[in-house]
Design a protein that fits this description.
Length: 348
């Protein structure tokens, strides 16, 4: 299985042309460099590729490692550029159009990428689920493209709150992501901060919305949770698509953590490249369920992060309550939303 099976011919040509500008990729090792680059798509290990292409294991390892690093260097500013304020606004507009979730700047999620235990690492990469991993944190837009990725954290960090110490979490806290600060919910005069949508693993903050817990659960809270889940599922669809497309993720990676990090980064930019080059190939809006199931069945790509105890501010609670009231108001309600609820309506 190779990249030609993952991309159409025009996309392959476009990707190849981008590599032509990198001097070291203009030549091939024994004529097989391009074939060994199929490592990501096939999932074959270095020894298997070495036998198949009759190239030394050390050469295979160097080629695949170099290829992943160059993929990121060549593509990330083209397919995953840091958004400016206008681009964030465009993302929010598209989220509202596609998922009826206003003021949403993206969907956040985190996953463990399985690796084999690195030598002399002790329990550094051993996570609470019982395997060795690095952590991928990501934000996607409404089309399923990765907007921000932060990968490489040791699996053992999860219980200490990897989001809080990650580059993504720190950037959100320090306000260095060029985010718009406040907007008005359409057809109302309600002003709220722009937000990201996340699951229970993440903290509830002024700019991060997560579901209500099931304590003192009401129909109104369930409506909010369903609306949030509808928007958040796009990131699950992205992870599912990545897991199906790149067979390397179907087993624990037998490489050093820094190489695994570069490999995952390369996969994220290839994911975006395919969406941009072939926008009609897969719709993230209607394929998330299938992709989510496929992701859950893979051994190398599992588990959401946890963050331990998260304390919410009063303002974050107020923001979430305001969204909930909007979704259950005549202005913000959708015709089908109550059909998805199992909680009894709150008595008047």
């Amino acid at each position: 299985m190779d990249l030609a099976c993952r991309l159409d011919s025009s996309s392959v040509s476009s990707l190849s042309s981008k590599f032509d500008v990198v001097e070291e990729f203009r030549s091939s090792a024994n004529g097989s460099r391009n074939n060994i680059d199929l490592y990501l798509a096939s999932g074959e290990n270095h020894v298997s590729l070495s036998f198949h292409f009759r190239v030394g294991v050390t050469t295979v390892r160097k080629i695949t490692t170099d290829t992943c690093a160059v993929l990121w260097d060549v593509l990330h500013l083209q397919v995953m550029p840091p958004p400016d304020a206008e681009q964030w606004m465009n993302i929010a507009t598209d989220f509202y159009t596609r998922f009826n979730f206003p003021l949403c700047l993206g969907a956040i999620d985190g996953k463990h990428i399985r690796i084999k235990k690195p030598a002399s690492s002790g329990s550094l990469y051993y996570n609470y689920k019982g395997f060795f991993s690095i952590i991928l944190l990501a934000v996607t837009d409404s089309q399923g493209k990765f907007v921000v990725v932060d990968v490489g954290w040791c699996g053992s960090n999860n219980d200490g709150g990897v989001f809080h110490i990650s580059v993504l979490g720190q950037s959100l806290a320090s306000g260095t992501l060029n985010l718009p600060t406040e907007g008005t919910i359409p057809q109302t005069d309600i002003k709220l901060p722009f937000v990201f949508v996340a699951d229970d693993a993440f903290p509830l903050k002024d700019n991060i919305m997560k579901p209500f817990s099931h304590r003192q659960f009401t129909r109104e809270k369930e409506v909010f949770n369903n609306r949030l889940s509808r928007a958040r599922n796009v990131v699950e669809g992205s992870f599912g698509r990545v897991a199906m497309m790149w067979r390397l993720l179907q087993r624990p990676m037998d490489v050093q953590p820094n190489t695994a990090t570069d490999t995952v980064k390369a996969i994220t930019v290839l994911h975006n490249f395919i969406i941009i080059e072939e926008p009609n190939r897969v719709s993230p809006c209607n394929s998330g369920g299938e992709q989510l199931q496929a992701r859950n069945n893979l051994t190398g790509f599992q588990g959401s992060i946890t963050n331990g105890i998260n304390r919410s501010t009063n303002n974050a609670l107020r923001v979430r309550e305001t969204f909930m009231k909007y979704y259950t108001s005549p202005t913000g309600a959708l015709p089908w939303q109550n059909d998805q609820c199992v909680t009894r309506p709150t008595p008047d």
